[in-house]
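User: quick one
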Amino acid sequence: MVDVMSVEKRSALMSRVGAKNTAPEIAVRQRLWQSGFRYRLHDSKLPGKPDLILPKWHAVIFVHGCFWHQHEGCPYFRLPATRTEFWVEKLRRNKQRDDEVTTSLLEKGWRVAVVWECAIRANAESAGDLLMKWLRRGSTPIEVWGDKAKTCHSSPIRAST
Ligand SMILES: [Zn+2]
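Assistant: Done. Structure below.
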């Protein structure tokens, strides 16, 4: 298991992961852009306001903070020790909303990928490479995540029903 985070570290993390244009998000964007992939940002006309929209590839990419989007089994996700009930309910709703957004986008014919904060923190280049591989050839929705060995992985997004 991971070390318990200090209060300061957690609050810093929690304030950061909710924000747009974070350093990890920018790192992945740059990787895609340098490789010739063109995108729009934060399109509010689409369900869930995806972080990156690649119309040419019929694809959207979400950059998910591991805490806010409740990345289960991830070292960056840990329920706060205080107001736990509140957080359980809040994060449950976030997750439910994510599922609904994914379903809605798929129904509209978009391809959907999620890149988790932990992937970008582990290895932003590798996370970007997995996304590009998926953009070119992927047929199912994927999520990209990272482990403590600084390695990124991709796997199908789990069905939520
Ligand atoms: Zn994670």
